[in-house]
Amino acid sequence: MLKYSNMSEPTSHKPANQYDDPSHNYLHYWDGRDYENEAERMAITRLLDGKHFKRAADIGGGYGRLCVFLEQYADRVTLAEPSQQQLDIGAEFLKDHPEIDRVQMQADELKFNDGELDLITMIRVMHHLPKPEPEFAELSRVLAPGGYLILEVANSTHARNRIKATLKGEKIPATPINVASAASTADGGIAFVNHHPATVERQLAAAGLTVERKLSVSNLRSPGLKKVLPRQLMLGLENVMQTTLASANFGPSMFLLVRKAA
Ligand SMILES: C[S@@+](CC[C@H](N)C(=O)[O-])C[C@H]1O[C@@H](n2cnc3c(N)ncnc32)[C@H](O)[C@@H]1O
Predict the structure, then answer these.
(1) Ligand 1 within 6 A of 43 CB?
(2) In the structure, what pLDDT confidence band is assigned to residue 11 with cuts at 50, 70 and 90?
(3) For ligand 1, what atom is nearest to the CA of residue 58?
(4) Residue 150: what pLDDT?
(5) Domains of the chain, first to last
(6) Residue 190 CA neighbour count, 13 Å, CB half
């Protein structure tokens, strides 16, 4: 059990147990998504640019998809994940990596000391956080001064959405857009939102976190394209698009390199 101190008072948060659903195995979600998986690793490699860290955690890391990859960047990596089912899948997935801690926690109440981590990744979690301010405050608390966060943001302003909005004469709101299925919303089911990158940047700044760089990621995410284009060609194009289209917030997924002031 990890020891932690100086934690903020426990919040009255809702338990993030959406993935404790025996009918859904997140490991299989990744079947047929090699392009997206490789595109995300490419982005992380680029943003970390050869840096090395002492203590990293992947928050909301699921079953640990990215933890082994992160080990090349840090002496110690923790999979921090609220869902017991994801952690159970992770126990098997990471069985050859006992050095990776697997700890149950959620992003608004992290079981780390103040300033304990010098690298945090939080990938594909923001779409479950319609109001991420408490989570950003926690990420900032556990980051060391000068520490880095790689944050993936499900992007409400991506090119396809902008075209649709323009055709309808609408403007994309600065507030999160609900993209959950109608059935799930009616059910009070899993929150599923896309965020406006400029709003996220402001929310991060309020937590003392500054965006230093961003990339446009999974730019060619489309079942149709995947059928006709070889994966290596898609990844070659992705490689160019991640940087050239970043300032236009082109892709469905923005990867932000965020830093806490030194
Ligand atoms: C789409 S999965 C992504 C998993 C992993 N980051 C990846 O990219 O493979 C979303 C994960 O976020 C976790 N999650 C949901 N709400 C969370 C919260 N409030 N704090 C931390 N993790 C959360 C879920 O349990 C789930 O494992």
Answers:
(1) no
(2) very low
(3) 6
(4) 98
(5) 26-260 (3.40.50.150)
(6) 14
- Does residue 60 line the site of ligand 1, with CB under 6 A? yes
pLDDT value for 185: 56
Catalogue the E-assigned strands of 82-241.
101-104, 117-122, 143-154, 177-178, 193-194, 209-217
Does the pLDDT of residue 218 top 50, yes or no? yes
How many angstroms separate the CA atoms of 246 and 29, rounded? 26
Task: Enumerate residues 6+ apart whose C-beta is below 8 A from 90.
Answer: 61, 62, 63, 64, 79, 81, 102
Asked if residue 90 has its Cβ within 6 Å of ligand 1, the reply is no
- CA 262 to chain centroid, in Å, comes to 23
Whole-model pTM above 0.85?
yes
Residues in the chain: 262
